[in-house]
Batch of 3 targets.
Target 1
Amino acid sequence: MTDVVQTFRNHEILLTGGNGFLGKVVLGLLLDRFPDLKHVHLLLRPRGNLSVKDRFYREMLASPALASIAEKRGQAFLESRISVLAGDVGDENAGMDRGDVDRLTGRVSVVLNCAGLVDFYPPVDASFRSNVDGVRRLAALAKRWGAKLAHISTCFVCGESDGLVEETEPILGFYPRRAGAGDSSFHHEDEIRCCQDRIRHIYASEGGARSKETARRLTDLGRQRAEHWGWANTYTYAKSLGEQILAADQELDSVIIRPAIIEGALRFPFPGWIEGGRTSAPLVLMALSGMKDWPVRRDATLEVAPVDLVASAILVVTALLLHGRHEPVYQLGTADVNPILLEPLVQLLAGDARFVSPEEAKARRQRLQKRITQAQSVIAGIRKTLETTGLPGKQSLSSWNMALRARGLQASLREQTLDQYLPFILHNRYIFESENVRAAYAQLSEPDRRLLPWDPEGIDWEDYWRNNQIKGIEKWIQPEAVKEWALRI
């Protein structure tokens, strides 16, 4: 049996991405469940006038995910268990100064890489810096230290799918439209060079400046390369390239961990805690705001996993990696043992939802936009008349116009959001084989399983969505979404 408690007592960890949604829970579990852990070196980027230590105390320890743990353990404990280092995974040596790199040689046993740019369609150079170059830099650093690397990817590197996605799918040479094992059309290093050449060409044609036009062209480039090979978006395209860098490296002992969509906490740090906008939160917020027309594949599952279960599984796999008892890939999905069908989920979220085709939904939105435009034109005419005659009422017209503008913006944002999520709710049907993580837990003692549970088969999804996910989104994400909405108006 693998003793997880003893493993973390004996090995030092470099953690990247610890300030993200998942990273905070990974760090919280380490501090809460393993008070005798040897040491965590936390890599953070300075931001503005804030040093990395300022960011750690103000942004991370003040987070709901860590505040109660920090209070319980105390500052002396934190300082004895955590070192905060300045760096950036996209730079050589992950941006650390040479003194830190040398000091950690022979000390860090494993690099746990939770860093990554999770935007679906960012400028492709930004995605490459984090999800491609960052993997290469961390792999080189781990080899310099004689350490191992646990890399967090995503299940959706599979691209287009209609059914079971196996953990044994070959990584090298993979692209979603691959025509069998004999298809050698894709090589990750050729694709990386091709994309980087086009990035340089875009910058050169714009005079080297990072303007709005440069960012637009770089965003379009990422979308084009992903669509060309069959990935759903720039994020999954870049993540697959990062995986292939690791798979090609014969000198590095590494593991790839692929979560499904990471959602609100089941139990830890408390039920319903959630952060960020790349979960199902945008869909939930649209449902709560009254959206009724849903272009979804009713027989498909939504592959999600609570963040604390994902973080627990990551730590278990990391312990197995340290003992050399790991598989190459671990998928962390739930639909193979406890599926959530989209039809009842949408009905739960949206009440009397109408299931429509994308064409029907778009036509409805266009009719709404046309009515809004007509109403705005009428208001503009009335305003002109009032200004000419000097009659009162312009204030009421301004309020009406603002309401119409908000309605139009809401429709536009819904359309943009749905377009990004259609691969996950309409175009594909995903079921991720997650046998390896179950086999991993079979290697643990019962006390270790209780410390780091992975038990998706026992989740009551209706109760989870009502009392964890929806309430968590309403409390932790909706207020920020409303602020952003107000700024756009």
Target 2
Amino acid sequence: MFSRYKIVLLLLLASLGSHAQQELMLGSSTDIWHSNGTNPAFFPEGKRFVIGLPGYSLDAAHSGNITYNDVLRKEGNRTIIDLGKAIEKLEPQNDVYFDQRIETVSLGIRSRNDKWGLQFGHAILLSGWIKYPKSLAEVLWNGNAPYVGQTLDIGLQTSIFDWQEWSASVSRRMGRLSLGARIKYLTGVSALNTVPERNTMRIYTDPDIYQLSLATDYAFYSSSIISSIDTAGLGFDFVTGSFGKKPSVNNSGVAFDLGFEAKLSENLSVNASVLNLGGKINWKRDANYFYSKNEYTYEGGTFPGTDIINGADSINFDSKLDTLNDIFQFQKQAATFETTIPLRVLAGGTFKFSERWQMGVHAYYQKTDNRTNTAMGVSLRWLPLRWLSLGAMYSANSRSSANIGFHVAVTPGPIQMYFASDNLLNAFSLKSSPAINLRAGAALAF
């Protein structure tokens, strides 16, 4: 059970401890096993058998310049929410994006003649976005007293879902050309999707008699996140530990990856891939549609903000919560719905100056149901030792025109370990950065 306002706060903070995945750096490291996740045609040169150990990647961002430290601070032994500084930095409409991928295990097999490759794998994924108005944060923090005579829009939009995928791929080498195709079976765990056409939630306080008027035309779909709403006690049955829940074949879908790599000469190669073609999940387990369409006038006055968020023993919420129940009157009905997996396109090329130095160019495109993101980068890779690889990259994307990336790969014997980030400074400043990009993993290649 979640206490007062925690659902909204959880959504707003989802990116502040965690843009869409670029993974540009992996395109310059095709000898690293986990690069296969970006292109099914990739297979480490000279390797016959690969065991992919766990890998982790995270890419998240908040629009503007909001960071973890802008929202949370220490007060004695408590960590409390402080939106005072954050509100000043917010735009009229604010966006949060996040993608997380946990590759649990994978297996790669290459034929003795190097013509065929097979891959099998499993991964756990989370993807989502949130769009919210500045006025929502203002009301949560300041209450309604400073906005008497103003109409405030406090409706947020979101699409958040997590799922697991089981994959199988095949690659075929024909001379200097390698082709790869992968099929992925998707099983959904949980999802929360608002309805764009029904996103009205407004509040108005009359300047003469402090009469509070609220209007709603708001709806969302949920599977295994919100199962019921009782605002009389704010009894949201809100499941936050979705990764602890099992995926369901009742929430299923299929996606495809296609890719190629062509060696144009001994030193020059190009590659491209399309990921998540046709990727959709149909949600049936615990799938419901919630909607509220109501207008309500409350002969009240004002309500507090700060104390509601962080808790105050002196506030009696009972009457206010009863009023919220009268206002929203959420109705629930069983209904299936569908979510679309982000479509990704990657392309690049590499040129080897020598056995130790290599340069690459890389491009990336992602499309979700409400936005697109593009990125381009130039990389330089140095292999000072047979078992050590260092790389740097300059890239520009839809958020920033100046990103400095870095990768390090250590490959003694059959062991492969790597760390990569398209924005190195952000990867090591999680609490003071509005964007994060990192990826790390390990494998055994024989």
Target 3
Amino acid sequence: MRRRALTSKPPEWTNWARSARATPAAVATPHSEDELVALVRAHTAAGGRVKVVGGSHSFTPIAAPDLENTLLISLDGIQGITHVDVITGEVSVLGGTRLWTLADALEPYGLALPNMGDIDHQSLAGALSTGTHGTGLGFTGYSGMLTSLRLLLASGQVVTVSRSQDPELFEAARVGLGAMGIILEATLRCVPSFDLAAAEHPESLEGMLTSFVDRSRTEDHLEFYWFQHTDMVSAKVNTRRPMGGERAPLKRAQHLVDDEILGNGGHRALCELGRILPRTVPRLNRFAASAMGDRDYVDRSDRIFVSPRRTRFREMEYAVPLADAEEVLREVIRVVNGYRDGITFPIEVRTAAADNTWLGTASGRDSAYIAVHRFIKEDHLHYFAAVEPVFKAAGGRPHWGKIHTLNAQDLAGLYPHHADAVRTRDRVDPTGRFSNRYLETVLGPPPS
């Protein structure tokens, strides 16, 4: 029997972080492109709006169905690889495909994604639309890997865009925020499969601050974590190795103890204790900093890039010019150490190479990414409000899927192509069929 795509009594939608909620007019999970196209055409022809979700992992309401008569569509039924060119490395992938499935699917072809973030719960369409990235100055975010897109427009038309086919729409949709069209299929340029050698060790905060920019230029992938009121960081250096060498993966017991018991269960317990007994936070953070990663291992690239994240939190992340990273980090640390409450989640710091995406956070400049987090049971708004002015003063660009307070006027001053992206949105969706409150805030309302 054919599965029904549409629900009659939709539940409230919420994202992973429980920081955005809305109740759509209906919810649909189509299981083919034809079904998806028919749903969108019928609902928009009747004057309705459409929002699409993948993993719902954005901390902002970027996917929230929060305007009247919005149909919420999940792409979970439309996943998989549709074409592989082992000569060029180009791989076509359906938009709903979850990132965590791609490594196994690509392995038989001897291919891999060039880079990955530390979370792979997202759909490919969602990761592209929000400018998701990993770390490493030799690499861009997922949108920098794109060579073409197939989009379902608000008109119901299906188009293919690339640098040679409607290049303006291609550039706008590479990091399109869900405003330009529904990503049916994306073609990415992959690389030959590779392993990573991970070195995770504690280092001094001062040493990391003074060396981070230079080390980012020489290490393949460098990131670090810092806890409030500590003078140490947990550094992670990933070095690329060709396939075929000897691997030394984490043993099952070590993974269980380090990542699940200490990294997830233990950290959750520290967050709960710090919430109940705020005065213990400095001691808890010193313990957490000393207990984080002190190990070396080698495994397939995705198994090193990605880490389990089971403790829910809220996050703000800004991209600042790499050259300013040390100065900005020192100011962020000063503000965080002076904050009135104990913060049990660390700051995370990464980098990405400049790209030429219109709305990518690293557009036109090598960037350092500084992310602040707050445990889901604690108020994040006051904390983020204390830190965000530092990012703004540095000309930082907020991650589209992470909490911030900037509006279209603010963002127009940060992105040379913001007006081009808005103009393109107005061309392909003039009546805002794919819009919501977040998009009207960061892009401005549609023209009609």
